[in-house]
Amino acid sequence: MKVSRETPNAVWNPWEWLTHQQRAQLEQYAQLLQALGQRHNLVSRETLPEVRRRHLLHCLALAWRAFPPGSVVVDWGTGGGLPAIPLAIAFPDITVHAVDAVQKKVLAVRTMARRLGLNNVQVHHARAEAWSGAVHYSVSRAAAPLAKLWQWHRRVARPHAPVPGAWQAGVLTFKGGDLTAELAALERLDAQVTVSLIPLAALLGDSYFADKYLVHLTPEPSLDA
């Protein structure tokens, strides 16, 4: 298993990359998340006052590279629609499947997606192990250990030709702290995985994200590729 650290050359501001309409949609989503979050326990209550920084900015790190038009993405354990809804807003030409086992969260995310006019979001009440679909990418916000995420992804993954400037098909997940044990478990499961650790504090220029990473898991290229 190959593990590398990919440090960005410069701070990247996702808000500047978005259109006025996308920023307006994200603001509406922030308001919905604050209104529904406390009622349905969608996110930690103490984070609601800083929802734009601690949730939206966090998730928008996924837009550092592109998801090609036509891509299909699954968000495992979407909770309050994170990162599914920000990702669907940032990339309107992709399809995002938001999966969660908690029905009240599924209903809340479905309501928010409808109010935001997001036709590219499909919300599913299911356990990750049981959801059936076919995707190019899996995303998650620390919903499960790396090995479990890789298992879920492999079961539903389909090939996607590489596109310059876009993420390689695989798993993109947000993690924090010491990942030694998770990486060791991942290697025991499948040694043919490439792991890239992208430090979020360096990418987003915000010390809140110190010791937090965007982790990219991809299959190692075959020798006959």
From TrEMBL:
GO terms, molecular function: rRNA (guanine-N7-)-methyltransferase activity
One Pfam family named in its UniProt record: GidB
Key words, A-Z: Cytoplasm, Methyltransferase, rRNA processing, S-adenosyl-L-methionine, Transferase
EC number in record: 2.1.1.-
Main location: cytoplasm
Superkingdom: Bacteria
Primary enzyme class: transferase
GO CC field: cytosol
Subcellular location: Cytoplasm
Function as written in the Swiss-Prot or TrEMBL entry: Specifically methylates the N7 position of a guanine in 16S rRNA.
HAMAP family: 16SrRNA_methyltr_G
Family in the record: Belongs to the methyltransferase superfamily. RNA methyltransferase RsmG family.
Protein name: Ribosomal RNA small subunit methyltransferase G
